[in-house]
Amino acid sequence: MGIAKIDCFAGASGDMFLGAWLDLGISEDVWLKGVRPLMSGEGEIEIVRTIKQEISAMRVLVRHEEGHVHRHLADVESIIDGTDLPGVVRQKSKEAFFQLAVAEASIHGTSPESIHFHEVGAIDAIVDIVGTMWAWHLAGEPDCYVSPIEVGGGSALCAHGRVPVPAPAALALLKGMPIYSSGLWGETTTPTGAAIIRVLAKPMPLRSMRVESIGYGAGTKDLPVANVLRISLGEWADVGPSDTHALRLPRAHGGHVHHHDHDWHEHSENRSEHYPLHVEEGLVT
């Protein structure tokens, strides 16, 4: 099974997840065969390689012209259940949309069943979420862990009008996760990306990892940092007790990383504000 570390230094969105998984070497033909039924024979999915600030990344473009369709949770679940995808893929996908509905309902003061999905109910968003769960399955269903998450800043225009960034639904979905903002970058982590993280990932513990393969998924923005999401596949590294002193040694000193006994969940409220300092000290996770 292995593990997957998801690095969100430029945020996270559904299309960025798709690109990163596919960049890891998942069969495009097999993946496309699984997600095309979601589009009912309409539209197209384009997979291209692009460069983001000298980093080669995969870009997945889902084009489907259906206008402004407002779907309820039951409508989206019906579309997902109409596919022949494995049960775990359908279950994870429906869980992501349920979490989205719960987040929206908490904001609007209604029930999850009553929520009208706007942007996240469109076919491209459905492909983003279901396609990510399908790609995760094709990658061997690794245990996923997420880095501190760049959530953006400022405001963004959505179906409800102008909202603060991160969008209220995205922020609600990221409760308990380490987050931070690098300033007024606009929306970097979308509700779709946040829902995927909520269902698939746990905060990354302070523990060493042996990386075996790396994938980069490109977003649409041009930011001060390369607008990509990185997924690293590998295994936990076996580290002996003698390495426990080296956690905060600078990289130049060649320090090893040890297995930290505390999980990110225990410090989720304050890890994010200290994380840049840890990076400067050479913390390796």
TrEMBL record:
Residues 260-285 have a biased composition (Basic and acidic residues). Keywords: Nickel. It holds the Pfam family Ni_insertion. It comes from the Bacteria. Residues 254-285 are annotated as: Disordered. InterPro entries: Ni_insertion. PANTHER family: NICKEL INSERTION PROTEIN-RELATED (PTHR36566), PYRIDINIUM-3,5-BISTHIOCARBOXYLIC ACID MONONUCLEOTIDE NICKEL INSERTION PROTEIN (PTHR36566:SF1). This is LarC family nickel insertion protein.
